[in-house]
Design brief:
By secondary structure, the protein is α+β, with helices and mostly antiparallel strands. The chain folds into two domains: about 15-90, Immunoglobulin-like (Sandwich), CATH 2.60.40; about 115-150. The protein has helices at about 100-110, 120-150; strands at about 5, 10, 15-25, 30-35, 35-40, 45-50, 55-60, 70-80, 80-90. The termini are far apart. One of its GO terms (cellular component) is plasma membrane.
Length: about 160
């Protein structure tokens, strides 16, 4: 039956790697669990290993893991003679703003009425703001033209 020889905590090389070595004859099939659920391999999380005789060595690789990837990782090795599993804790990043998470959930549940936006009132306010901005731009262009046209006259009729 299979035996798990080593299972190491995640280490950062090119990617984060949970290294493992499994012995078994016949060669066992390997799969992973994350917090007790079957781990689906993706481009972000995938397993690479090679078989050398009766030993399979490899890594469960993580490409830029986040706090969502924290948890218990279990390798399960199975062949016709039995199965073996071993678990290790993987900790990659701290959860951002852990002390304020309750505050955010409270704010999301109880939104004050003055924060709710009426779409007609909002579109009216936006059109007023755009109109004022356009008026200010036109006024600036007119002032610039007037300054250029009338600001060049010399005082007292003297030529410069």
């Amino acid at each position: 039956p299979p035996r798990i020889l080593t299972l190491e905590e995640p280490v950062l090389h090119m990617e984060h790697c949970i290294a493992f070595a499994v012995h078994g004859n016949p060669a066992p099939t390997l799969h992973w669990l994350h917090n007790g659920q079957v781990l689906r391999e993706t481009e972000i999380i995938h397993m690479e290993f090679y078989q050398q005789g009766e030993v399979s060595e490899g890594c469960l690789l993580f490409n830029k893991p986040t706090h969502y990837n924290n948890g218990n990782y279990t390798i399960v090795a199975t062949n016709q003679l039995g199965s073996a599993n071993q678990t290790i804790k993987g900790h990659f990043l701290e959860k951002p703003f852990p002390a304020m998470s309750g505050l955010f959930s409270f704010r999301m549940q109880y939104t004050p009425k003055f924060l709710c936006v009426d779409s007609k009132a909002f579109s009216f306010q936006v059109s007023i703001a755009v109109g004022l901005a356009a008026f200010a731009c036109v006024l600036l262009v007119v002032l610039f033209i007037m300054i250029n046209k009338y600001g060049r006259r010399s005082k007292f009729g003297m030529k410069g």
